[in-house]
Amino acid sequence: MNTFTIPRSLGRSLVGLLATTILTAAPAKGPGPSKHAGRGIACAQCHGKGGKREAVPMRQCQTCHDPEALAARTAQVKPTNPHQNRHYGTQTDCTRCHHEHRASENFCLPCHTRFGFKVP
Ligand code: HEC
Ligand code: HEC
Ligand code: HEC
Ligand code: HEC
Fold it and tell me: Which atom, in ligand 3's list, is nearest to the CA of 118?
């Protein structure tokens, strides 16, 4: 299935470039509000109790969201299913698109301009 993998560093460097631009425009003031907080999810349900508040591994998202079920739910989304793709099947790291404390991004767009998702 996975005929090749996209080096994480490539995505990172694009994101890094963007972040630098934003950070120079406005100084960072810690994370924005948690999108899940409005759904009654506590910080510790993603970050762990007493754990460092930093990037969350995908398996943590999977304690509540099943990637297979999710892919089935968005199978009809146009122009293509965001939760199932040629490169990673259903295993694309969630936080490549969904961010918790800031606007989400479209991981596919830099390489595929026709996949113009609106990521919640
Ligand atoms: C749904 C999971 C989730 C919940 C709930 C959550 N976070 Fe996060 N947090 C993340 C992710 C993922 C990142 C990595 C940055 C990103 O992708 O948004 C992060 C990053 C952070 C960071 C590092 C700074 C940054 O923006 O990268 C801090 C600090 C933080 N979270 C604090 C909190 C606090 C405080 C709460 C509760 C109000 C909370 N988080 C709730 C997922 C979560
Ligand atoms: C403790 C359980 C829990 C964890 C852990 C969790 N979520 Fe959620 N998430 C929910 C619930 C409940 C909802 C609301 C119902 C739904 O849309 O499935 C939700 C909704 C969402 C939505 C839809 C938001 C919208 O506006 O429609 C996204 C995207 C999402 N989660 C991504 C993530 C990502 C990415 C992670 C890991 C960083 C994560 N979730 C971790 C419980 C969780
Ligand atoms: C390629 C970018 C991308 C990745 C990677 C991604 N998503 Fe999404 N996600 C989207 C888009 C786009 C939507 C909105 C789909 C639509 O239009 O209904 C969405 C919607 C959702 C929703 C709401 C679904 C609903 O029924 O309304 C949840 C929950 C969610 N994603 C969780 C996750 C989790 C958990 C992961 C990792 C297993 C993940 N996503 C990986 C782009 C992505
Ligand atoms: C770093 C660049 C890059 C990123 C990011 C990327 N792709 Fe691709 N993608 C490619 C390349 C190069 C090919 C052609 C080689 C191949 O077919 O495997 C391709 C091929 C494809 C194809 C089959 C050919 C086609 O155009 O229909 C699909 C479907 C696809 N990608 C979907 C996605 C989706 C969905 C995402 C986001 C989750 C994504 N890609 C992210 C570079 C990328």
Answer: 12
